[in-house]
Automatic annotation (TrEMBL):
Cofactors (names): Fe(3+)
GO molecular function: catechol 1,2-dioxygenase activity; ferric iron binding
EC identifiers of the protein: 1.13.11.1
GO biological process, alphabetically ordered: beta-ketoadipate pathway; catechol-containing compound catabolic process
SUPFAM superfamilies noted in UniProt: Aromatic compound dioxygenase
Protein name: catechol 1,2-dioxygenase
Domain Intradiol ring-cleavage dioxygenases, first and last residues per copy: 137-165
């Protein structure tokens, strides 16, 4: 067709009505966003000759995606969560808010309310002792001048040896591999945990179903997530992705970034193991964070993205 139906004045007026522009109720912000969604969706349908069957397949897909709780997973897999990082990086650069540890995506598997410990914590419940490699993680939280930030909260979470996360994987104990560690006077945090495995999307789930159609895998390299926060400093959401993993630079969620690659140092030394209180082979990893100063109170807070909250003992 020569004339684009979606661009005619009649259709534009119709979508304005559907977005609530004909009334004084509701949210002006949402109306503006919805109008754009409808306009752009209509344009896409027309430009790409989306068939009715394709359209209703997509509607059904959204139902199944939400039904399985995988919307956040697909957003990560399509690179949109990483795009938000790139956008925020560009905004920061424009106003000279540079320096410190790079941000990278949170992902969909955080759970609020993990146990808090002072200075150090054991993160694993010991249930995988027979198969897991003990991991000793430590580092410091510093400001941009390299001065320690005492009393910072290092909220850390990672997967088990199967690549699964507690809470979402009901076979794990509550808050397994999730802790909040408050830094000591030197800005230091220490954790004993286990070496995580990379995550893979459920092969039967709707996210992998879409990735299959794109000819893509749904694997992440082994990684450790962090929220770092402290009064007066800008909240940091980041991860360390572990070197040596075949997916390190082939992450389906695009989270790996320069400056965020962590090196596991495997140690096989009986005396060193005894000193650490473990038997046999273990791993060490050191990673420190540098925080920007907060420019406002809101800067100190993480985003208000809805997150799971497990009540301890429940
Ligand atoms: C993860 O563990 C993760 O970090 C992301 C971003 C997506 C899926 C699983
Ligand atoms: Fe993860």
């Amino acid at each position: 067709m020569n004339v684009k139906i979606s661009q005619t004045a009649d259709i534009q007026k119709f979508f304005q009505e559907a977005s609530g522009f004909g009334n004084d109720e509701g949210s002006p912000r949402l109306k503006r966003i919805m109008l754009r969604v409808l306009q752009d969706t209509a344009k896409l349908i027309e430009d790409l000759d989306i068939t009715d069957d394709e359209f209703w397949t997509a509607v059904d897909y959204l139902n199944r995606l939400g039904g399985r709780g995988e919307a956040g997973l697909l957003i990560a897999g399509l690179g949109l969560e990483h795009f938000l990082d790139l956008l925020n990086d560009a905004k920061d650069a424009e106003i000279g808010r540079i320096g410190g540890t790079p941000r990278t995506i949170e992902g969909p598997l955080y759970v609020a309310g993990a146990p808090i410990a002072q200075g150090e914590a054991r993160m694993d419940d010991g249930s995988e002792a027979a198969v897991a490699t003990p991991m000793f993680l430590e580092g410091r939280v510093l400001d941009l001048d390299g001065q320690p930030v005492a009393g910072a909260v290092v909220d850390v979470w990672h997967a088990n040896t199967k690549g699964n996360y507690s809470y979402f994987d009901k076979s794990q104990s509550e808050y397994n591999l999730r802790r909040r560690i408050v830094t000591d006077a030197e800005g230091r945090y220490r954790a004993r945990s286990i070496v995580p495995s990379g995550y893979g999307c459920d092969p039967q789930g709707p996210t992998q179903e879409c990735l299959n159609q794109l000819g893509r895998h749904g694997q992440r390299p082994a990684h450790i997530h962090f929220f770092i926060s402290a009064p007066g400093y800008r909240h940091l959401t980041t991860q360390i992705n572990l070197s040596g993993d075949k997916y390190l630079w082939d992450d389906f969620a695009y989270a790996t970034r320069d400056g965020l690659v962590g090196e596991l140092n495997f140690v096989e030394n009986a005396a060193a193991a005894a000193k650490r209180g473990v038997d046999g082979r273990f791993a060490e990893i050191e990673f420190s964070f540098q925080l920007q100063k907060a420019a406002s109170a809101a800067d100190e807070q993480r985003s208000h993205r809805p997150r799971a909250l497990q009540v301890q003992g429940a």
